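MOLECULE: protein
FOLLOWS: sequence and fold
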Amino acid sequence: MQVLYEDNHIIIVHKESGEIVQGDKTGDIPLSETVKDWIKKEHNKPMNVFLGVVHRLDRPAQGIVVFAKTSKALARLNKMFASQEIKKTYWVITENLPRECEISAENFITLHNWLVRNEKQNKSYAYDREKAGAKEAILEYRLLASGKKYHLLEVKLHTGRHHQIRCQLAHLGCPIKGDLKYGAKRSNPDGSISLLAHKVEFEHPVSHNVISVESPLPGLFGKIYGEKS
């Protein structure tokens, strides 16, 4: 865990792949508890620390996670996430290049599907047309850089669906590197998927200042982006 921003009301950290944001049936220590312990030690707080979870990031992914340190910030951030007022930008690495990127390499391309979630499989399925029980899913993507074997895409979400980026890109024929669940050819050595929550930008829920935070670029993300001509 790396702290990227902190004030009296919010804390933004970089989550490593393999960490869970909130406790689940595995019983593994969640990132929320790690952040609480860090706040306790960093600020010498003898009492219990309040920390609100306002959004999640898939366990095998890495990058920015925002937490609320006060109940006031939690309530306002929850509303902001629900109304898409918080701008989140993701970077993903794929082996295949979307055909549309060959035509329009720099402009954002809209991807519009309908997703059906299978709870038992913990997986979503994408369809090109509206279907009973499906939820509309919209994102935009563009090519940032290409390496010798892989491509780096930037993705912006317009809806927040279960495994949305993973599912929609796989449906496009471009599964995320390492994402076996959605059709990648092989896993990453550390069990991660090459999905990075890279940037978050929003109006602070209390001070109303603009907060803009970027995550570090780990491993292959930095390498491919560094090769950008």
